[in-house]
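User: Hi! I'm a student and our assignment asks us to look at how structure tokens line up with a sequence. Could you show me two examples?

Assistant: Happy to help. In each example below, the sequence comes first and the structure tokens follow. Example one:
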Amino acid sequence: MSPSLMEFEGFYYDGKSPTRHPVKLRLNPQHLHLIFPDQPLLSWPYSGLRMTRTGSDGPIRLERFISKNEVTPRLVVIEDPEFLAEAHRVAPGALGSFLAPPQRRNLRRALIVLALVLIPPLFFGIWKFGLPVLSDTFAGNIPVAWEEKLGETVYESMFQPPLKEPPPELREALDAISKRLLTAVPKQPYQFHIYVHPGNMVNALALPGGTVVVFQGLINATETPEELAGVLAHEYQHVLLKHSTRGIIRQVAVTIVLAAMLGDSNSALAAILETAGALEALNFSRGM
């Protein structure tokens, strides 16, 4: 290489035969000049070149198609790794970002490492602090009619076929307990409805908009109406404080954030449309 002339040694293939021809390469801001010992000089505009390379330290291959009908391109092979840095210095960006010098590759590696270090705590901060604030703010502004529709959607996704109406005497007792509980909050906006699940699980859960599901096992485990009223009061508080609505919003937000980080727009859309995917956030047991 002659530094004053910015020349590099290489080999040229004409695309017609496997014979390689020694060539010197001279860089200038507009063209790459190919200088042969026994042929006329060729000038290749940078815009018509394509580079391929095996690994980060393999020979540099510059290809050029003269016409669209060509199957095999003309090719120059350069083994001097300094060619990349010199090409970037003489004609910055002219050969494309794939011909970035080693310094830029090192910068990219450093940025990747930095991202791997910073993204986990950043995501944790969003999940721990940002999403709760977002879900609380959003849930506080959702109309009751939307919550009721959301509750219906979740109920239908959880219980198919729909739960049967309990015996008249049990329905009458549940309605009486509900009426007594709601006298303490006369201005609350929800229309509460209690469903009875025939399962033996000792549990109850609250859905958005005033839907409460009580398992038969819990009813059987209570010895007095007051005990059952205490459980229902607990579930009513979940509805009045929008716990289940916040849980769904937070679950959807986590899915959207993850999908955005992974570049998966389909998952983000599915998270918004399929709110039933957050059902675990709704399962407020008696232990809460």
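Example two works the same way, sequence first and then tokens:
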Amino acid sequence: MLMLILGKILLRCMVMLSFCLICAYQLLILRLIHVA
């Protein structure tokens, strides 16, 4: 039971982290395009 709850929390954290990384990557690309 506890492992299931921890698994759901971990999965949610992984999704949020990947979303944040994608957003940061897009902002970095936009900044590079602006500079170029």
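Here is something you could point out in your write-up. The mean pLDDT is 95.
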